[in-house]
Amino acid sequence: DGGITQSPKYLFRKEGQNVTLSCEQNLNHDAMYWYRQDPGQGLRLIYYSQIVNDFQKGDIAEGYSVSREKKESFPLTVTSAQKNPTAFYLCASSMPGQGVNEQYFGPGTRLTVT
Amino acid sequence: EDKVVQSPLSLVVHEGDTVTLNCSYEVTNFRSLLWYKQEKKAPTFLFMLTSSGIEKKSGRLSSILDKKELFSILNITATQTGDSAVYLCAVIKKSSGDKLTFGTGTRLAVRP
User: For residue A40, which of B102, B36, B92 has the smallest C-alpha distance?
Assistant: First the structure.
């Protein structure tokens, strides 16, 4: 059945290590997004990609990197340059131009860096 | 700078009460406003509003947009404990693809 999967659900890392969060969708959506959610801050856009092999920085891209080699996959790497990486990370996808604009969200990955 | 502001930040009500959640926005080239419900993990889509004054309804939930005063409200009537969640408002701008700008959310707790 169609949807967005993120793995793992919980992730623990030591400070100074890079970590990659997975996001896969089988909805045939062109666009994919990464958000970060902190308590009391809502969702903030990290990176987005509207088509394969292309992506743009969102509002808080510093310390993160992404790739979009396949339509189905949009992994996010949290690098050691990200000063405060502990957060809940949400991936989403949508089909631009369909007139609906809703984004479908994955279940999220909770990253804890100590 | 684009802004989406939700109020109240949190709310506690009893089952059966009616609640109104507010979302105001200041964005250039506004296209649509969306409401999401987030319980524990993934936000789930509730409504998308593009035109002023047209109410969208789904069961006990309804929402309306005022493009002149730049706000939207989400109403929930006869609240149930299952309505307890964070309600998120987000705005899409024209020519930004499907990029959403979110508010901070309103945390609703419905007590039995």
Answer: B102
Tens of pLDDT, residue by residue, chain B (112 residues): 889 999 999 999 999 999 999 999 998 888 899 999 999 888 999 999 998 888 999 999 999 999 899 999 999 999 999 999 999 999 988 776 677 899 999 999 999 9
With a cut of 60, say whether residue A50 has pLDDT above it.
yes
Nearest chain B Cα to A10, which residue? B41
Sign of CA dihedral A94, A96, A100, A101: positive
For residue B98, the chain A residues in CB contact (below 8 A) are 31, 33, 50, 94, 96, 101, 103
Check B42 against A50: CB less than 8 A apart. Answer: no
Q: How far apart are the first and last CA of chain B?
A: 41
Q: In angstroms, what separates the C-alpha of A74 from chain B's closest C-alpha?
A: 16
CA distance A24 to A114: 27
Strand duo B3-7 + B100-102: pairing: unpaired
A28: left (phi over 0), alpha (psi -120 to 50) or beta: left
pLDDT, one tens digit per residue, over A35-46 is 999 987 789 999
One DSSP character per residue, B15-26 reads: TT--EEEEEEEE
pLDDT of residue A1: 57
**Chain B residues touching A93 at Cβ < 8 A:** none
Give which of A23, A32, A36, A43 to mutate to test B binding, by max B Cβ within 10 Å: A43
